[in-house]
Design brief:
With 116 residues, the protein is mainly beta. The chain is built from 1 helix and 9 strands; from the N terminus they run ββββββαβββ. The longest helix is centred in the middle third of the chain and has 5 residues. InterPro entries: Hydroxyisourate_hydrolase, Thyroxine_BS, Transthyretin/HIU_hydrolase, Transthyretin/HIU_hydrolase_d, Transthyretin/HIU_hydrolase_sf.
């Protein structure tokens, strides 16, 4: 990765599509798949803009990664309880570009895409 980047090589954000607002204070864990097992390499909470941009300050390997979003804790403070207690997004790093993995969230579903 390009070490001159001032943010993590892997970033994420959460937009609550039911409110049109970022999901703040959500715990997100980042794992890498090595030796047939998942290893936790970073953990953080989304900021007021629903983002985590600073949890890794090192290069990352071409590998399979997984983000795990703790949705139960977020929905404890929302009018509608969560149907999904967590969301998991598994993805591969296959190039040296920045990888931004957003989560679009509602109480009864979620989706994702490769952002920029």
């Amino acid at each position: 990765m390009n070490k001159s980047m001032n943010k993590s090589p892997i970033t994420t954000h959460i937009l609550d599509t039911s409110t049109g607002k970022p999901a703040e204070n959500v715990t997100v864990k980042l794992f890498v798949h090595t030796n047939n097992d998942w290893q936790l390499i970073a953990q953080g909470k989304t900021n007021s803009d629903g983002r985590i941009t600073d949890w890794l300050n090192t290069d990352v390997a071409f590998a399979t990664y997984k983000l795990v979003f703790d949705l139960d804790s977020y929905y404890e403070n929302q009018p509608t309880p969560a149907f999904y207690p967590e969301a998991q997004i598994t993805f591969r790093l296959q190039d040296q570009k920045h990888h931004h993995i957003p989560l679009l969230l509602s109480p009864f579903g979620y989706s994702t895409y490769r952002g920029s």
